[in-house]
Design goal:
Order of helices and strands: HEHHEHE
Structural class: alpha/beta
Mean pLDDT: 79
Helix content: 25-40%
Radius of gyration: 13 Å
Number of strands: 3
Length: 110
Amino acid sequence: MHGHDNVTDPNQFAKPESFEAAMKLSKYFWVNLDIGHFVSAGYDPVDYIQKHHERIATLHIKDRTKAHGNLPFGQGRRRSKEVLLLLKKNKWRIPPHRVRVSGSGRGWPK
């Protein structure tokens, strides 16, 4: 399941509770956590990953504002550095994918 940030749409995976409900349906349902959307929806990706890392298949890493806008990488309110350090520290094998959005620049920050 890939989340977005429209917390008012009951058909979107935007809240931790919506991911929880879907994962209860099958042990084969895992999360593709987009930390940019997760932050835009008002949630903390570090906290969520700490609690649910065993059911996260991949991470989308991109920068967004809490007002749902895309930004060049490194200028948003997401917590990419903390997320990547958390994965490394705990040796969790969750592959992060840098998502390039229009106007967001190229590559990983140095």
